[in-house]
Write a structure and sequence with these properties.
The chain is mostly helical. About 80% of the residues lie in helices and about 0% in strands.
Length: about 375
C-alpha cells in the first residue's frame, strides 16, 4: 500500500509490510503487561489478600480475551475504511482514535449511561462506581434495552450497506450476495430491511413501555448511521482539493468512532457479568482494544484484505449476526462467549474459503 508507511509509528517500522507479525503487537504486549500489573495492584488494594489479587488479575485477563474475541470483525472493518483514508488521518485514528476508544467507550461511556439513567452528575456516578459497584451495575443492566436497540440497528445498517452495493463484484456466498448487489439500486432497501427487523423485535418486547423504548432507541441508531453517512458525503464533496481531502478524513474518522462505539456496547455491558468494578472493566477492555488497534495496523500494512478476498465478507456477516444477537439480548441473555465464537467462526470460515480460492487460482 503506497501510503501505508505513514499510518503510524508501527507502520513506519514495518516499511513495506514485511515485518514479523509479532512486531505489530509490540504496544499491545506492553499495555497488557502494564494493565495486568495495575489489575493485580487494584486487587491487592481492594481485597488485601493474595487470592483476591489473583482473582482480579484473572478477571482482567478474561475481559481482555473477551474484547479481542468480540472485536475481530471490528479490526477488519476498521482496516477496510482506513485503507482508503489519507495517511495523516490514518495516523490520527490509530492514535487519537484509539484513545477515544479506550477511555471514551470503556470509562466515559459507562459513566454517561449512569449519569443519564440515574439523573446524577458525572462525579457522583464515579463515586457510585467506586463505592457502590452493585448499584452501579444494576443501573447499567437496566439501560441494556435501549443500548441493544441503538447498537443493533447501527451495526445492521453497517453490514447491510456493505452487501447492498451495486459496485460490489466479489461475492462469497454468491446466491445471496449477487441478488443483494443487483437490488442495491433500489433506493433505501437496506433501511427498509433494518426497519422491518426493528418492528419485528419491538413487537416481541413484553409490554408497551419496553416496545416504545426499543423502537425509539433503534430509530436513533438508524438516524445516527444516516447522519454520519450524510456528514461524510458532505465533507467528501466540499469545495477545494485540499479541503476535500482533509474534510473527507473527518467524515471517515467520525464513522469509525461511532462504529467502534457500537461494537463496544456488547462488550461493556457483558463485562458486568464478570465484574462490577468499573476500573477492572476498563483495564480488561482497554487491553483488548489495543489488540484491535494492532490487528488493524497489520491488516492495512500487509494488505491482508486484498490477499484474502472473502475476509471482509466474513466480518460483515459477523456484524449482521452481532446486530441480531443484540436485538435478541433485549429479550433474553445470550452468553458473550457465543457472540465471540460466532463472529470468530464466520471470519475463520471466510479466511478458509479465501485460502481455497487462492490455491485454486494458483493451480
Amino acid at each position: 500500500m503506497q501510503d501505508s508507511t505513514s499510518s503510524s509509528g508501527d507502520a513506519r517500522r514495518a516499511g513495506t509490510g514485511t515485518a514479523p507479525i509479532l512486531g505489530y503487537f509490540r504496544w499491545a504486549f506492553i499495555v497488557t503487561a502494564v494493565g495486568l500489573a495495575l489489575g493485580a495492584a487494584l486487587g491487592w488494594q481492594t481485597t488485601g489478600t493474595v487470592g483476591g489479587t489473583l482473582t482480579v488479575f484473572f478477571i482482567c485477563a478474561v475481559l481482555a480475551v473477551l474484547e479481542i474475541s468480540l472485536s475481530f470483525d471490528n479490526a477488519i472493518v476498521n482496516a477496510n475504511k482506513l485503507k482508503s483514508m489519507r495517511p495523516e488521518w490514518q495516523r490520527r485514528f490509530l492514535t487519537w482514535g484509539i484513545l477515544i476508544a479506550v477511555f471514551g467507550m470503556r470509562v466515559v461511556f459507562p459513566l454517561l449511561i449512569v449519569v443519564i439513567a440515574a439523573g446524577i452528575g458525572p462525579w457522583q456516578a464515579l463515586v457510585l462506581a467506586a463505592a457502590r459497584p452493585a448499584e452501579y451495575a444494576r443501573i447499567m443492566h437496566d439501560a441494556h434495552l435501549p443500548i441493544a436497540a441503538f447498537g443493533g440497528t447501527f451495526l445492521m445498517m453497517v453490514g447491510l450497506s456493505f452487501f447492498f452495493d451495486h459496485e460490489k463484484d466479489v461475492h462469497w456466498v454468491r446466491w445471496i450476495e449477487d441478488k443483494m448487489a443487483r437490488y442495491a439500486t433500489i433506493r433505501g432497501i437496506e433501511v427498509a430491511i433494518a426497519l422491518l427487523a426493528v418492528l419485528g423485535f419491538a413487537r416481541l418486547q413484553p409490554d408497551a413501555a419496553a416496545q416504545q423504548v426499543f423502537f425509539s432507541a433503534a430509530i436513533w441508531g438508524l438516524l445516527t448511521f444516516l447522519l454520519v453517512e450524510v456528514l461524510g458525503g458532505f465533507l467528501d464533496h466540499a469545495q477545494g482539493a485540499r479541503k476535500t481531502a482533509a474534510a473527507g478524513g473527518v467524515g471517515a474518522f467520525l464513522y469509525l468512532e461511532v462504529l467502534d462505539a457500537s461494537f463496544s456496547f456488547d462488550g461493556v455491558i457483558g463485562a458486568f457479568a464478570l465484574s462490577q468494578n468499573l476500573f477492572v472493566i476498563a483495564i480488561g477492555l482497554g487491553i483488548g482494544a489495543m489488540y484491535v488497534r494492532s490487528m488493524t495496523i497489520m491488516l492495512v500494512e500487509k494488505g491482508t484484505l486484498t490477499q484474502y478476498r472473502y475476509l471482509e465478507h466474513g466480518a460483515f456477516y459477523a456484524i449482521i449476526a452481532l446486530s441480531v444477537i443484540m436485538y435478541a439480548q433485549s429479550l433474553f441473555h445470550i452468553p458473550e462467549v457465543v457472540t465471540g465464537l460466532g463472529g470468530a467462526g464466520l471470519i475463520g470460515l471466510s479466511l478458509w474459503s479465501s485460502v481455497r480460492s487462492n490455491r485454486a487460482e494458483a493451480s
